[in-house]
Write a structure and sequence with these properties.
The protein is of the alpha/beta class. The protein folds into three domains: 296 residues, Polyphosphate kinase middle domain (polyphosphate kinase like); 171 residues, 2-Layer Sandwich (Endonuclease, Chain A), CATH 3.30.870.10; 170 residues, Endonuclease, Chain A (2-Layer Sandwich), CATH 3.30.870. The protein contains 18 helices and 27 strands. Strands 14, 18, 19, 20, 21, 23, 24, 25, 26 and 27 form a ten-stranded mixed β-sheet that branches. Strands 10, 11, 12, 13, 15, 16, 17 and 22 form an eight-stranded mixed β-sheet that branches. Strand 8, helix 8 and strand 9 form a beta-alpha-beta unit. Helix 1 runs parallel beside helix 4. The protein is globular and about 90 Å long.
Amino acid sequence: MKKKEAPYINREISWLSFNERVLQEAADPTTPIIERLKFLGIFSNNRDEFYRVRVATVKRLVKLGKKALAIYDEDPKELLTRLQRKVIEQQIKFETIYQEILKELAINNVFIINEKQLTADQQTFVKNYFHDEIISTLFPVMIDETKPFPFLKDKASYLYLKMESIVNNQKNKYAIIEIPSKIISRFVVLPKQGNKHFIMLLDDVIRFNTDQIFDVFGFRTVESYNIKLTRDAELDMDNDVSKSMIEKISKSVKARKQGLPVRFVYDAAMPNDMLRYIMRKLGMAKKDNAIPGGRYHNFKDFIGFPKLGEKNLSYNNPRLLEHKYLINNPLSTLRAIKSRDILLHYPYHTYNHIITLLREASIDPVVESIKITLYRVADSSKIANALINAVKNGKQVTVLVELQARFDEENNIYWANKLQEEGANVIYGVPGLKVHSKLFLITTREAGKIIKYAHIGTGNFNEQTAKIYTDFSLLTCNKLITEDLTKVFDFYENNFKVYNFKALVVAPFYMRKTFLDLIQKEIQSAKSKKPAAITLKMNSLVDKEMIEKLYEASKAGVQITLIIRGACSLVTDFAGWSDNIKAYSIVDKYLEHTRVFIFYNGGDEKIFISSADWMSRNLDSRSEVAVPIFDEEIRSQIKEIIRIQLSGNTKVRILDKKQENTYKKAKPGEKKVRVQDEVYTYLKTDKEKYLNLNKTKKIIYN
């Protein structure tokens, strides 16, 4: 008898369900109105990356024909149709939400107006602004049938115009103008009128002034529509062994900019003749992911929508917390870590603690070396600058820069070159592996003894994303951990040697097996009628083997709780498979990015934090690290944060088999719990209790 196949939600379909949760935040009337606009921007940016990476991959599979079925679960052609149907459905919702937000903004005296709604004074301002600030950044292209069609860049938005001759004997023409939103803000703030704020999109400022560009050539604009092309963003690596990794990545990044089109978005109001003309020029058919959209594209720019009007129109987040063991710290950060393990939780705690630690290490005479992995760094990275300062102060600095961090390759190449120029030992990743771990190791010589300090985290060394991503950083000088971390860095420098680890769980060598074994232990406990439970928090759960093991655990009676922000291919509420599995997703003002794995383990709970999701790429083809939490206070802290997250009844969705994203709501008489606010309150209260206790002790002592 053939074994029944385990239920599994396609990763791409599940990912679209996640982006629907982002769209829900834009639709939620309890979200401040300007933040709702920003969520539309996040949704749009997510969808762009989805097309550039995931849809591009499916399109490549289509070319394989029947062979694709051997490496993929379903017919990629059929999947593309399903994806396009869902994207169009979401786009209709998107447009409806945007129109609702415009009305809400107007009620609050913030008006987004177009070129047809300008008063005489506003027209004068817009003409002057165009002449002074914009016209020099524009490079219009008149489309000529005798010349090749202009190349449309990935991620750029364009105005596509129909031009009418105002001079005899000239045919009507088409033109393309790239909207220079990388150079000039997409949002032009017009002069305030009383208490009314007016904003105009850069697109419409250009539309209003196109005749200033073309009338000297004998044309005026008849029609103007926004268009956008998304290209395949997969890197095709050169196998030339004579080239360095940095040369190969640089070449691939340049090639990516000319990748094949995977989506064409156009204004749905565009006349058919204009649409047919440009699609013919692009060599695309309607079936090739041509998506009718609204008047504007590249909505990702709305993430940077200016704060205008009353304060309640935006989130007014509370002040960042200093960690209770680092506030008013008379010792250096290293000495504080020496006395106890410390867990930082962003964005509630200030990221300055990490920058301060590295800055102190860069000048502290006892520090001999610093080793660190960099995956995505900020454009003006204080982390990288602290490392450069360490080199100048005579420290041995080793930096592993992952050149294949998707969409951050150019920035990482810049910092790799800069660090190398300054004298750091720079390692360009590991052949065949993407290094995704978030580690640093500081080695000191104190009173003749070597002492090591470790950082193992769930998020990147990036002071910008630390303001909006929730992440953990464990700081410790626990010898079991620091000795293992020394081995990890030795592996990065000498790839031929694979080590055994006493504490750390390291991918791709042992992580899959370790977690499978821990699940198996829970299964055995459940079968022996003993308590058995697993709690997992991560961004994505799509690995088939791990999912099947969780189904096996559920069937045995293990109580499993999942908190998954993004794609979740495990099917909950599926009789006989997932009866003992509950799954939730939190989407709110911060992006949930922590990974936490808790196993009951016969009462001796094992708790890990990690950089890894449960995806085959993380477990099998990346270097990832999970660290066990030994410190009792930190163990209690993590468990309390997870308890708060599971008690949430605002901004929490239930992940069900229909992917309906139903909100988990407060029961009658139950207190409303907004997870991210509650976590901040918990950490703030914990800090205040500690400080008050210390204050009391000092008074008694004195």
